[in-house]
Design brief:
heterodimer, A: Rossmann fold, 11 strands, about 25% helix, globular, B: about 270 residues, mainly alpha, 11 helices
Chain lengths: ~220, ~270
């Protein structure tokens, strides 16, 4: 589904990603782990054209990704940013903002669908009219996740999706995102999230290697063999 | 009414010397930085205006189309470099697009003002072309500085929100829409505000100048209405064009802001 071949990224004269090659298949739940500054966020943004690469090839669904084709990639993938910084608006306006874009104009969700999505993420039903800036960090992160899920993407790119969440909310997010229905590529320091992913990649100083092969077992994924 | 009453240089000097009072008081109150700024700013203002007065005298006497156009282009280039630098930006591409925006908007609005309202024998007559274009340019300068400053400042402050929209499938224009709106609002609001109070709270410079120059107040008022509409049109067109062109040159092919156009904090 996603293929990277010898991808290199240089930022302000410093090489931040070195010769990365990887294949992510449909249904995979891949997680990038490793120290901060290792290149995890850069790689996730690169998959959506948020960072340009100097060398190498990136294919999405067997098509080479270029500035001309990036719009297709972005509408197939849903992005969950690490920092949930929104404009000063209500939760409803925030959830509906993507539907003002030409790409989603025809698929605006109903009030009921929005409420259902928020409920699955343990957010109270009266939250729709609240200002996002008045919410806690964890609530804002769940609004961020709800906004992406409402777009119903086939691939989810999530940068530390549980970093601001308590245990209960983390369980709800894991149940929604890591249920095998979507391809998920994420970064995380959360052991519960990592243990539920089928593939784990370690990133350090811009180099990436697959750490362990996981397989489904009792209570989540376990190390293969 | 008769022509302008000339001011003798001695009387002007006497009037300017009134500034010694605030200067002494500022020194006494230990507002040394303000008094220093005051001396520099007023000194520059006096020197610049006297030089322009002398220069325009020759320009009007010469009244040569090519010289007039070259003078206008110099004014625009100086305004342009000021806009880009004072908005905290750097980029040859931004200098070029700001120059295009100023050139088009000033040319079109000055042309319309002269053709529709003043109707001089020659459109390139220095007596009309230079003051009208200069007035429009001065306002475009302030409006464009504000618009670019707010637009790029907002993109920088709200980088995550803008990037999230972009990566979720928005086009560049859709992703930067909140910043565009804010830039327009904050650069047009001061002009609209001053329009709303014009004539009641203060008499505008052009109208005052014309009345002092011997024009009937009603004629001066008609000129002022014309110039205010011209200012609004020129500022609006220059900002709209400039921001529109920014979307083409300040973002990379994937729609991400090219940060090399922003000046570093230390610069």
């Amino acid at each position: 589904m996603i293929t990277l071949r010898n991808i290199c990224v240089t930022y302000q004269g410093v090489q931040v990603l070195h010769d990365l090659s990887v294949d992510i298949n449909t249904g995979d739940s891949a997680v990038l782990v490793g120290p901060s500054g290792g290149g995890k966020s850069t790689l996730l943004k690169l998959l959506l054209g948020g960072v340009s690469w100097d060398k190498g090839e990136y294919q999405f669904q067997r098509e080479t990704v270029t500035p001309e084709t990036i719009a297709t990639v972005r509408t197939h993938c849903g992005y969950i940013a690490q920092e949930s910084r929104f404009l000063d608006a209500s939760v409803r306006e925030t959830l509906l903002r993507p539907y003002s874009f030409a790409a989603y104009r025809s698929c605006r969700p109903s009030e009921e669908t929005m409420n259902m999505q928020l409920e699955q993420l343990l957010l109270p039903d009266n939250v729709l009219d609240k200002k996002v800036t008045a919410l806690s960090g964890g609530q804002r992160q769940r609004v961020n996740i709800a906004r992406t899920l409402l777009l119903n993407p086939s691939v989810i790119i999530a940068d530390e999706p549980t970093s601001a969440l308590d245990d209960e909310s983390t369980d709800a997010v894991i149940a929604l995102l890591l249920n095998g229905q979507k391809t998920v590529i994420s970064s995380s320091h959360d052991s519960r999230w990592i243990s539920r992913c089928s593939r784990v990649f370690t990133m350090e100083h811009g180099h990436m290697f697959e750490t362990v092969a996981m397989e489904e077992g009792e209570g989540g994924y376990v190390q293969r063999g | 009414m008769s022509s302008v009453v000339d001011i003798s240089l001695a009387n002007l000097l006497g009037f300017v010397s009134l500034l010694l009072l605030p200067l002494l008081l500022l020194q006494r109150w230990q507002l040394i930085d303000v008094s220093k700024d005051m001396v520099i700013s007023i000194g520059r203002m006096v020197a610049q205006l006297l030089l322009v007065g002398l220069y325009l005298k020759y320009l009007f006497e010469l009244n040569h189309t090519v010289v007039n156009i070259v003078w206008l282009l110099i004014m625009m280039t100086v305004a342009n470099t000021n806009i880009v630098r004072r908005a905290g930006l750097r980029s040859m591409k931004l200098l070029v697009i700001t120059q295009i925006s100023l050139l088009l908007s000033i040319t079109v609005v000055t042309g319309l003002f002269l053709v529709v309202l003043v109707q001089p024998d020659s459109l390139f007559d220095a007596r009309y072309l230079i003051p009208i274009a200069g007035m429009l340019l001065g306002n475009c300068l302030q409006g464009n500085i504000r618009a670019l400053e707010v637009f790029f400042g907002e993109l920088k402050d709200q980088e995550e929100a803008y990037l999230s929209d972009l990566l979720l499938g928005a086009t560049v224009r859709e992703a930067v829409e909140p910043a565009l709106k804010k830039a327009f609002r904050s650069s047009l609001t001061p002009i609209l505000g001053s329009m709303a109070t014009l004539g009641i709270v203060f008499l505008p410079g052009m109208m005052t100048g014309q009345i002092l120059g011997g024009a009937l107040p009603f004629i001066a008022a008609k000129y002022q209405i014309g110039i205010m509409v011209g200012i609004f049109m020129a500022v609006f067109c220059a900002i709209a064009l400039n921001l529109q062109l920014c979307l083409r040159v300040a973002f990379n092919p994937f729609g991400v802001l090219d940060k090399s156009v922003l000046l570093q904090q230390s610069e």
